[in-house]
Amino acid sequence: MTDLVAGPKVSADVLSPVLRKHVDPAAPEPLRGMGARLLVPASPHDAVCMLYLLSFDPDERVRAQALATAQALPDKVSLTGLRDDTVPPAVLGWWADQVAENERLAELVILNPATPDEAMASIAGRCSEKNAELISQNQLRVLRHEPLLRALLCDAKLSGALRDGVADFAIRSGIYLADVPALVDAHRRIHGDVPPAPPGETAAAILAELSAELSDELEGAPLEEGRRATLTQRIMNMSVAEKIKLGTLGNKEARGILLRDTNKLVCVAAAESPRITEGEIVQLTNSRTINEEVLRVIFMNREWIKLYQVKLNLVKNPKTPLPTALRFLPHVRPSELKDLQNNRNVPTAIRTAARNLMMKTKR
């Protein structure tokens, strides 16, 4: 399972400084062995990362111990560490491989949004029927990662009804793979014997054309108005699946168009793009027309909500769920609290809570 030749894809910097000596190949073997047995105080986040790093240790005994500890991970570590979305994706991918046959632990990794799609595809045929169903329920993953769709549709553990549901959803979203029998059958159920329509605009084609703009974007150069209008028209003619791929890998201009799409999955794919910037996130939280699901993606992201302007915008945005807005309100500066208590564009509950906080600060 562990690729000892390639070595870990994550450095020891992910650990607390005090724990790095326990994964240092130059440290004494007993010190590394303590880490492999989790005999050192470590948060769940550090524990899962430490075992990952020690699984690449040069000493076979340390590697074996790290793997054994991973297989019998204590609840106090697994229940928090494996669902922590700040754990690096490479670490979560390794854990998915280790615990694929362990239904309880695999479920935690499957439900973690930071687990890479590649890991889900690799364990889809090895995990339990219940967990395979969990994987299939993440429609965004299924549409944006073709190997995962293939793995699910070829998984004998999936019930016929569930497999048909996944296949039908893929066909309606614009995916057709002639070498996957389940998709051929689904096309026949939905469209009869009509031959599949030739593919229209694809994300790959647009991404290739946008390669120059991707470089321009880094320099802050916007797309010319005429080209933006053309890009919008082309994107509107794309299938849902292709829009999701473009939203994940495209540039700022493409994301800006796709974030306004009427399909929730498309909006979320653009919001979760690894290319999205802090500036874009701030603008999104300030928008009154943004899809509410996009706001949810943002306020559930621990990195984005560290930004003060994001917290402030979420408090002021009427589309933010009230409990969430109230949770961020105590982080607002007094000067802005003063403005909020008189702001008619925010809910009454926010104005009242801001007024109460102002009164407390004056005491």
- Uncertain segments are 1-5, 216-220
Strand content: under 5%
Q: Which overall shape is indicated by the principal axes computed on the Cα atoms?
A: flat
**Span between N and C termini?**
61 Å
Mean pLDDT over the residues = 90
Q: Please bin the fraction of helical residues.
A: 55-70%
Number of structural domains: 4
How does the major sheet shape up? none
Structural class determined from secondary elements: mainly alpha
What's the gyration radius in Å? 24 Å
With helices defined by DSSP (H or I, 4 residues minimum), what is the helix count? Answer: 24
User: H/E order of the elements?
Assistant: HHHHHHHHHHHHHHHHHHHHHHHH
Which helices and strands, and how do they pair?
Blueprint (H helix, E strand, L loop, with lengths): L28 H8 L7 H11 L5 H12 L3 H7 L7 H11 L3 H9 L5 H7 L5 H8 L2 H6 L1 H8 L6 H13 L8 H11 L11 H7 L1 H8 L6 H12 L3 H10 L2 H7 L5 H8 L6 H8 L6 H8 L8 H9 L5 H7 L5 H7 L7 H15 L1
